[in-house]
Design brief:
Distance between the termini: 32 Å
Radius of gyration: 20 Å
Number of strands: 0
Number of helices: 5
Strand content: under 5%
Order of helices and strands: HHHHH
Helix content: over 70%
Structural class: mainly alpha
């Protein structure tokens, strides 16, 4: 029973971290720059000189956003590791089929009620 409660706390904290750190914004910026990069490279109307100037800038933006997203993922992995270290049986329960299904259902439920809890 305690593992269910701990898993609920983990899911809520993880979702809040993910949403408050705007992790999806990092992904959308990477996708946006990648699509711009593809358009730039396939365009015959832009000289190679300008392509050479803009490619490092696009690459830097993509790398920075990838590192930010990686940081969020590492923070969540660190949180999971801390929970697994602090609570006996949490790791085994969370990687079991029941634990994963419960995480999925808790995530969907929390995302559904979150706007009401936040007063929106």
């Amino acid at each position: 029973m305690i593992n269910h409660l701990i898993l609920t706390v983990f899911v809520v904290v993880t979702i809040e971290l993910f949403l408050r750190m705007d992790a999806l914004v990092f992904v959308s910026k990477m996708i946006e720059k990648l699509s711009s990069f593809i358009k730039l490279m396939s365009s015959n109307h832009i000289s190679d000189h300008w392509k050479e100037k803009i490619i490092p800038k696009y690459a830097l933006i993509i790398i920075i956003n990838a590192l930010k997203f990686l940081g969020v993922l590492l923070l969540i992995i660190g949180l999971f590791s801390a929970f697994a270290w602090l609570f006996d049986g949490f790791f085994q329960f969370s990687i079991s089929v029941i634990g994963m299904v419960e995480m999925l259902l808790l995530s969907l439920f929390y995302l559904k009620i979150r706007p009401k809890l936040m007063g929106r």
